[in-house]
Amino acid sequence: MNATAVGTGVDTGRRAPAIALAGVGKTYAGGVRALDDVSLTVEHGTFLAVMGPSGSGKSTLMHCAAGLDSPTSGSVRIDGREIAGLNETARTELRRERVGFVFQAYNLIPSLSVEDNITLPLRLAGRRPDRDWIGTLVERVGLADRLHHRPAELSGGQQQRAALVRALATRPTVVFADEPTGALDLRSAHQVLDLLRALVDDLGQTVVMVTHDPAAAARAHTALVMADGRVVEAMDHPMASQLAARLAALGEH
Asked: Which of 33, 70, 130, 164 is deepest in the core (most CB within 10 A)?
């Protein structure tokens, strides 16, 4: 499967997709082909999970789609803007404006309060925080009484929720989440996944999540399974058991 369209069935009219990849390839030094002619469209307000065995290309797909890396060939658009040919400075500016990131490591600065961590990307970009928007997010994730705490005073789940608010503070076109529950206990992982899904369903946020966990991927509207740099299957309303079986068939243990 070379071309995949992902959406929720909502009519987006003439608005450009949140993400559009066309014929994207990525070859690293030594001839290692991490992505092989991948075409993918992700509509706004969609929760997409990307899975696959180690070396399948899922992380490279995220890096190219998010502007963290440049493809060797093909087109990458975020909200209609071509980014594949941009230089590093221009890609950095686009990421700052259009993209939010949540990683397995929370990447909070220990010496700053939760509030200062959340607003730091805005301040670095010279933008004034939208206090109403951030207040809405903080209330939704249950951190309103933790804003003046340092990260070390929060649980892992609370730190990841703070990282999620930080990613959303700029009102990005898309949030990329790379193994966002990998460092969390089961209860905290469920809470973070519930929040991600609610942000999509209630606020229309677009989320692309890379994960090894079939249970996490089952929270998404659609799950893509990758192998050998290509999308080999797209599952709408995925079930964890289906995803686990598909990964097992591809040699994931």
From this structure: 164
